[in-house]
Amino acid sequence: ESTPPGTRFPLGSARDPDIGANSLQNYELTPNPLFSLLVRESPDGTKHPELVLEKILDREKQRNHHLILTAVDGGDPVRSGTAQIKINVTDANDNPPVFTKEIYKVRLMENLPEGSLAFQVKATDNDEGTNAEITYSFSDISSSARQLFTLDPRTGDVKVTGPLDYEENKYYEASVEGKDGGGLTAHAKVHIDIIDVNDNAPTLSLLPILNPIPEDSVPSTVVAVINVRDRDSGENGEVSCKMDGNLPFRLETSSENTYKLIIASALDRENCREFAVAVRAQDGGAPARSSTATVRVFVLDRNDNAP
């Protein structure tokens, strides 16, 4: 199909045993927009037909052409003979691969197991044979993404080969290349969004403010400050705290991620000289994750009892 217009193809000559005007006089070709007929005459008068390509061929539009060559003599009545010309257009690598999408947008849960099929890129090629065989590869990809994803050069399957972690990286971008057997290429973009999963429990850090505390400390005295944090996002990262047990303390919100442990009622060292205050932090995921930290509060004696 890459044959340039103007190329000539010699055809077999007809034979006519008659002589003079009754012998072979001319050749005719069935009308066709792609081919014409040129009759070349040698010095001895023999006529040689040649098929001439007039326009560029396109195998993808039409791979076979059927023509009829007619040889005509000059007798009366005129006699003729015909021959069929069958033309098979072979493939030239004149079509590059084409991806099914210019941009592949993918959303993956961060708990997708290693070895799972993440997505597939696909390109087509209108050529045939090896010219239509496409090999896939990453043409541009970060080192971190290369450790997490592999691309099958034959199928275009992209698989997860490492642990995805939304908290480490929530977005990846890469470019893929499809190359056919003739060396023509196509490119597409890949955008990968990692979706958060509630895979992190809240963490608590304790900062004692007053410990031990005098037993005559007034209510609302701050005993400790508790900071909470959750690495997840959205509801998975929204944390609430509560205190377990019926103790003379309560939690008070100080800021978005900070709580104060304060005295709620009078203390009496003679009744209890040490408290283990369990503070439980729970996120808003489904299912929720939680953590517990214990604040040990020691009560300092005051001379509040007469002999």
Written overview of the protein:
With 307 residues, the protein is mainly β. It has three domains: 8-88, Immunoglobulin-like; 98-195, Cadherins (Immunoglobulin-like), CATH 2.60.40; 203-300, Sandwich (Immunoglobulin-like), CATH 2.60.40. The protein has one helix and 23 strands. It has one helix at residues 143-146, and strands spanning 8-10, 24-29, 35-41, 47-53, 64-73, 80-88, 98-99, 103-109, 117-120, 123-124, 135-141, 149-151, 157-160, 171-179, 185-195, 203-208, 213-214, 222-229, 239-243, 249-255, 258-263, 274-283, 290-300. A four-stranded mixed β-sheet has the order 8-15-14-11. A four-stranded antiparallel β-sheet has the order 16-18-21-20, with no helix packed on it. A four-stranded mixed β-sheet has the order 17-23-22-19, with no helix packed on it. The mean pLDDT is 92. Residues 1-99, 100-204, 213-307 form the Cadherin domain. This is PCDGD protein. Keywords: Calcium, Cell adhesion, Glycoprotein, Membrane, Repeat, Transmembrane, Transmembrane helix. It is a single-pass membrane protein. It is found in: Membrane.
Write a brief structural summary.
The chain is mainly beta. The chain is built from one helix and 23 strands. The protein has three domains: 8-88, Cadherins (Immunoglobulin-like); 98-195, Immunoglobulin-like, CATH 2.60.40.60; 203-300, Cadherins (Immunoglobulin-like).
Write the layout of secondary structure elements.
Elements (H helix, E strand, L loop, with lengths): L7 E3 L13 E6 L5 E7 L5 E7 L10 E10 L6 E9 L9 E2 L3 E7 L7 E4 L2 E2 L10 E7 L1 H4 L2 E3 L5 E4 L10 E9 L5 E11 L7 E6 L4 E2 L7 E8 L9 E5 L5 E7 L2 E6 L10 E10 L6 E11 L7
Parallel strand pairs: 8-15, 17-23
Antiparallel strand pairs: 1-4, 2-5, 3-4, 5-6, 7-10, 9-13, 11-14, 12-13, 14-15, 16-18, 18-21, 19-22, 20-21, 22-23
